[in-house]
């Protein structure tokens, strides 16, 4: 009897070890993302440095398995009626403000929170945020993946008055997530043009940073 009990305990322990190994070492899992807390439609480069529009969002990317996921590239699409536009240039950064061209990102089980900027492709494309109902879709291409995987689909609305304001190069539109109501609240943000003194000071500081210590 004791022999049978020992064998059963051993089999249970082996099963637990096998399940643990599968969960931590072999199970591929999925790449997932949380509801973006902030989304932005507007011009790139601090509102006044570029006339091309971009899409920005902040979210947590995480893996459903301990193994983690390796992202090769990301992009978003904006759909309004029959119109569809890809924003295929991916740039990401953290809280310190440093931005990097997306060229691979390892996402752990604990996740990584980043600011994601998606710009228009460099083929002369131009896109204006007209009034209407939009669907923002977020895609990620994993290493060795056959095709990009859709991570999220978000409905958003740009009003007539907001679309009119967005024609100005210094105006952007933010969508902030309200968890209590379960939807986004939009508001315009207008940035003032920097004066000449501010620009000269910024250029001087950048030159000093690039000059090697003597």
Spell out the key features of this protein.
single chain; Immunoglobulin-like; 3 helices; elongated
Structural features, described:
By secondary structure, this protein is α+β, with helices and mostly antiparallel strands. The protein has one domain: Immunoglobulin-like. Helix content is 21%, strand content 43%. The chain is built from 3 helices and 13 strands, in the order αβββββββββββαββα. It has helices at 2-26, 160-165, 196-210; strands spanning 31-33, 38-43, 53-63, 69-80, 83-87, 89-93, 99-101, 105-107, 112-119, 132-142, 149-158, 171-178, 183-190. The strands form 2 sheets. Strands 1, 2, 3, 6, 7, 9, 12 and 13 form an 8-stranded antiparallel beta sheet that branches. A hairpin with a 4-residue loop joins strand 12 (171-178) and strand 13. It is elongated. The model is unreliable at 206-214 (pLDDT under 50).
């Amino acid at each position: 009897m004791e022999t049978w009990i020992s064998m059963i305990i051993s089999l249970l322990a082996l099963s637990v070890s096998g399940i643990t190994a599968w969960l931590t070492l072999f199970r591929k899992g999925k790449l997932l993302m949380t509801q973006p807390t902030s989304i932005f439609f507007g011009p790139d480069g601090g509102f006044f440095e570029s006339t091309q529009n971009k899409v920005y969002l902040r979210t947590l990317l995480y893996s459903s398995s301990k193994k983690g996921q390796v992202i090769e590239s990301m992009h978003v699409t904006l759909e309004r009626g029959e119109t569809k536009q890809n924003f295929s240039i991916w740039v990401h950064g953290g809280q310190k403000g440093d931005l990097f061209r997306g060229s691979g990102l390892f996402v752990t089980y604990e996740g990584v929170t980043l600011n994601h900027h998606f710009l228009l492709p460099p083929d002369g494309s131009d896109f204006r945020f007209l009034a209407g109902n939009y669907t923002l879709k977020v895609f990620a291409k994993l290493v060795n993946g056959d095709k990009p995987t859709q991570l999220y689909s978000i409905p958003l609305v740009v009003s007539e008055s907001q679309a009119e304001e967005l024609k100005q190069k210094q105006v952007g539109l933010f969508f902030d997530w309200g968890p209590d109501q379960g939807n986004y609240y939009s508001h315009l943000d207008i940035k003032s043009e920097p004066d000449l003194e501010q620009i000269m000071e910024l250029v001087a500081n950048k030159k000093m940073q690039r000059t090697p210590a003597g």
